[in-house]
Amino acid sequence: MSKGSSSMDGSGSNAETAAKDRHAPEPEDERKPDSPTKLTAASWKYALGRSTREFSRLSITDLGASLAYYGILSLFPALLALVSLLGIVGQAESTTQNMLEMIGKVASPEVSSILEQPIEQLANNRAAGLTFLVGLLGALWSASGYVGAFGRCLNRIYAIAEGRPFYKLKPLMLLLTAALLVVVALMAILLVVSGPFAQAIGDTIGAGSQTLLIWNIAKWPVLAICAVGLVTALYCGTPNIRQPKVRWLSAGSATALLVLALATLGFFFYVANFGSYNKTYGTIGGAIVLLLWLWIANLSLLFGAVLDAEIERARELQGGISAERSIQLPPRDTTASDKALAKENKDIERAAHLRTAARQSKDN
Q1: Long-range Cβ pairs for the range 258-262 (8 Å, 24+)
Q2: What is the Cα–Cα distance from 130 to 358, expressed in whole angstroms?
Q3: What's this model's pTM, rounded to 2 decimal places?
């Protein structure tokens, strides 16, 4: 496959990845505009328009569904680790109740009800230390499946094959997952545990409820920073591409978070006022609501990734780089994709031999 071509389904072929490794310019090639702010109006119009078309062409709705599946696999081990951690410090029962109340308010009673039984069972488990260790290892491995799947989705968006061998890729995904879980745990603690601590500090220094009021305002920027960090880590750390310099708040990540916030508010407003999942589906209504929300959340994240990819394409095009068919970013590694390409070529040779042999037998 020649340079600049792409496979029909949007995913990068092994041959295309090898070509990019040989010929793609450096991520910060001087021909490109230094930043997206230097793109022309025509480039922005093209990037925005192609983002919507690529969203459909790449079947992002299907990719979002697969990520929702991996998200479900990661959710309960992560809850196990979090609740067990609270059990170690003696805050499990009181805090889990606050957690369920918060989920009911922020999300919906259906989601809260589907999580209530497993969370309360974990909170009443006295073997918190062992449970925490098991839960942490399970959460790390399960969540790494989500992180790895997210990377494969981004490889598809950037039309690149996965070239990192398993012995390099899996440790990297586990390390990235561990960092992400720490941030997620911090966000959960800020939401459900920090209030009583802030009140206690206020009582100690004589500030009373003012400390709690200040913290209730200040924690939201902290949570926003954590959310930006999560999205940036997924966008920059998972795909097999050497990206331009890291921008902590890219246009894609900002759009993803904004769309996620608006979609979440709209979805749960619909569920609370117009939905009838419990009446229609009975006890599994909460599970369906949770799955739908995870799907919507992942669609938001993937759309942001598509937007970032198309902005990079626009930078390349404006710099005179041939990126009409495929974004020209070099891969991080081609070890696995080169081996896969060699196997593909052998299969093609065997197939050609079979065809030639069949033709010769007919001629005879």
Answers
A1: 259/300, 259/303, 259/304, 260/296, 260/297, 260/300, 260/301
A2: 64
A3: 0.84
Provide the CA 43 distance to its chain's centre, in angstroms.
Answer: 27
Structure tokens at 285: 């209504």
Taking only the tens place, the pLDDT of each residue in 47-86 is: 999 999 999 999 999 999 999 999 888 877 767 666 666 5
The mean pLDDT value for 256-267 works out to: 90
Cα 61 to Cα 215: distance, rounded to the nearest angstrom: 38
> CA end-to-end span of the chain, whole Å?
35
From residue 218, alpha-carbon distances to 189, 195, 221 in Å are: 14, 12, 6
Q: Which DSSP state fits 320?
A: T
Instruction: Answer whether 34's CB lies under 8 Å from 244's CB.
Output: no
* CA geometry: angle 188, 191, 196, nearest 5 deg: 120
The CA R_g of the chain, rounded to the nearest whole Å, is 24
Within the chain, residue ranges assigned H as helices are 14-23, 41-57, 60-88, 92-106, 109-123, 128-157, 166-192, 194-205, 209-237, 251-273, 277-281, 285-318, 335-363
Which of 228, 225, 212, 216 is CA-nearest to residue 191? 216
Asked if 154 contacts 66 with a C-beta cutoff of 8 angstroms, the reply is no
Q: How far apart are CA 87 and CA 81, in angstroms?
A: 10
> How many Cβ atoms sit within 10 Å of the Cβ of residue 13?
22
Classify residue 284 by its DSSP letter: G
The rounded distance, in Å, linking the Cα atoms of 307 and 45 is 12
- The secondary structure of residue 238, as a DSSP letter, is S
Residue type, 56: S
- CA angle (85 as vertex; 80, 91 as ends), nearest 5: 110
* 308 and 240 Cβ atoms separated by less than 8 Å: no
In this structure, which amino acid lies at residue 269?
A: F
Residue 239: phi and psi, rounded to 5, are: -80, 160
Domain ranges of the chain: 39-333, 334-364
